[in-house]
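We were asked to recover a plausible sequence for a given structure. The inputs and outputs are reproduced exactly as logged, with field labels preserved.

PROBLEM: sequence recovery
POSITIONS: 309
GIVEN STRUCTURE:
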């Protein structure tokens, strides 16, 4: 019996992972590799982890360039969209939109059954929602309107070494014994452990639903960004003093961050702008729909610090 004779339910699904060279994508692949045929969409194959190259199908493509997507998506059952436009420069929102429209159209054309997209938390009704978070939501809306059933997971800071937003918190806390910080110190957030994000993404492949759904995901508890910095300091046995300076604007804040963190001032500014917006789970349906249950923020930070070692 050839593999084509298997009943459809037994056929091994083909899963496309975009962002395969990125923080989330590169960690998702080893987790789902034992269960699915994995195809990676990459702009530059030489950037893909060498050990993965022999175990996955590598397809070169760029979401900004539609024709490069057609072959990548042929025969794909489920496609992960793990790309953001923070590196695109000032007009990142427009590029995020074009990239999502290109990807959605190519997925529809190729008959993909599901898109799984990891976006950002934040309240759509908040008129001061940062351009980065607004853009993340717009990408989700484009997928949901595409006709391809989409699972959109919305998350705040993903806690783990290598994650852009975690590195921001880590380098701030490690380098500065006393920090001059603006109002965003008291903004509530519900970060999430990398392990938990990967579990939700994995489960999304087979989630028994035919329609598009948005799920908000986070750790068990809500903290403030100031609290997060203090939790990280505690795990590293550091004492940190946080001084609030309400007049420090996001722009000045990003220049200052450029000096003390490895994140570029441009990327830092987009992330920092988002720190003024609460990013908490307001609809916790994920807790009942998914079998996975997330850890606490303190546990997530402890795990991240252990991974640093
Ligand atoms: N990290 C977090 O804290 C966090 C929190 C909430 C949500 N998320 C979401 O999670 C997803 C993945 O984020 P991440 O942290 O893994 O990002 P990341 O580490 O910065 O990786 C971004 C990935 O996107 C790829 N990419 C960028 N532009 C592309 C293009 N035009 N065509 C094809 N690939 C392109 C990059 O590939 P190259 O190697 O070619 O540059 C890279 O693999 C994003 O949707 C993000 O919004 C992340």
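RECOVERED SEQUENCE:
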């Amino acid at each position: 019996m050839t593999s084509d004779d298997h009943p459809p339910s037994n056929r091994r699904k083909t899963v496309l992972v975009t962002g395969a060279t990125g923080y989330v994508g590169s960690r998702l692949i080893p987790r789902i590799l034992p269960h699915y045929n994995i195809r990676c969409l990459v702009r530059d194959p030489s950037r893909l982890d060498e050990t993965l190259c022999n175990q996955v199908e590598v397809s070169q493509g760029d979401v900004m360039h539609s024709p490069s997507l057609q072959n990548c998506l042929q025969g794909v059952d489920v496609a992960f969209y793990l790309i953001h436009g923070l590196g695109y420069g000032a007009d990142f929102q427009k590029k995020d939109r074009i990239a999502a429209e290109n990807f959605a159209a190519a997925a529809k054309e190729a008959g993909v059954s599901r898109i799984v997209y990891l976006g950002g938390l934040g309240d759509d009704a908040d008129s001061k929602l940062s351009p980065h978070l607004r853009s993340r939501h717009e990408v989700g809306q484009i997928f949901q309107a595409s006709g391809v059933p989409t699972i959109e997971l919305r998350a705040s800071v993903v806690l783990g070494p290598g994650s852009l937003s975690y590195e921001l918190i880590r380098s701030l806390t490690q380098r500065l014994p006393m920090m001059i910080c603006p109002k965003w110190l008291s903004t509530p957030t519900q970060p999430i452990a990398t392990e938990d994000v990967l579990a939700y993404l994995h489960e999304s492949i087979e989630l028994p639903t035919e329609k598009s759904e948005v799920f908000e995901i986070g750790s068990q508890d809500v903290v403030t960004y100031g609290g997060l910095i203090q939790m990280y300091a505690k795990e590293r046995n550091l004492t940190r003093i946080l001084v609030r300076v309400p007049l420090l604007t996001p722009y000045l804040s990003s220049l200052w961050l450029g000096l003390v963190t490895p994140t570029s001032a441009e990327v830092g500014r987009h992330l920092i702008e988002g720190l003024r917006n609460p990013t908490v789970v307001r609809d916790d349906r994920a807790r009942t729909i998914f079998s996975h249950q997330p850890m606490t923020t303190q546990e997530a930070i402890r795990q991240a610090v252990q991974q640093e070692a």
